[in-house]
Amino acid sequence: MLTTLKITTPLEGVLCITLNRPEALNALNTQLLGELADTLSDADCDDTVRAVVITGSAKAFAAGADINEMAERDLVGMLEDPRQHHWATITRFRKPIIAAVNGYALGGGCELAMHADIIIAGENALFGQPEINLGIMPGAGGTQRLLRAVGKSLATQMVLTGEPISARRALEAGLISEITQPELTLERAIDIATRIASKAPLAVRLARESLHKAMDTDLATGLRFERHAFTLLAGTDDRDEGIRAFQEKRPATFQGH
Fold first, then answer.
1. Which of 9, 47, 80, 233 sits in a 20 to 30 Å window from 202, CA-based?
2. For this structure, is 111 an active site residue?
3. Under-70 pLDDT residues of the chain
4. Which residue in 230, 175, 240, 223 sits closest to 205, CA to CA?
5. Is the pTM here over 0.85, yes or no?
6. Does 172 participate in catalysis according to the annotation?
7. Angle 182-60-211 (CA atoms, 0-180°, nearest 5)?
8. Which of 109, 111, 113, 116 is catalytic?
9. Residues 214-223: pLDDT tens digits?
10. In terms of DSSP H, where are the helices of 216-251?
């Protein structure tokens, strides 16, 4: 039974995961990360789930790692930290994730948001990597994903000063895709997830993989991967359905075949 997450299915094809540690501003302790990893693993194998929304509370998406828990681990404890395996599971998730962020997205919370494919933020959102203030540094992708998202200068400033940026600055820098009123953030994220869920699952998967490939390879390799994926889709039933629906001027019904 999940105790740190709330799971709902607001619309067909969409799974909504709400981080639920309000007493700790949704700090990402081992239990929460484990439950999140397990939930995503199950969703990865569930054909009825086509997109996932991850959100927190009005006050905090996630305010970072659980510092009290971290303080109990020495060097050996950190080397054997089970959280690294949970993060790896989250990273391997193959379906689109939309993060709906209100309030604090700091440290591990910012890193979790950056695991999403799309980030929708409320006007009150704050993004930051404040680990340097504790004599440590980001350890779940904060230096790598942040630099790729906002560029070297801003990423370095955020990591080395520990100072957060506003939703407006995050939008200007390319970290997030939209700003909404805080009370509409989740609604907008679910709307985007629903739109994605209505598309051909195989096309979504390969398009997403191609976008990810662009982040960690050179242009020529990325273009070859894209063309290969494009060609593979020519053999799918959904591609035939999409073309027929266009010709017949009707909505397509995709089955993931």
1. 9
2. yes
3. 71-80
4. 230
5. yes
6. no
7. 80
8. 111
9. 988 999 999 9
10. 219-232, 237-247
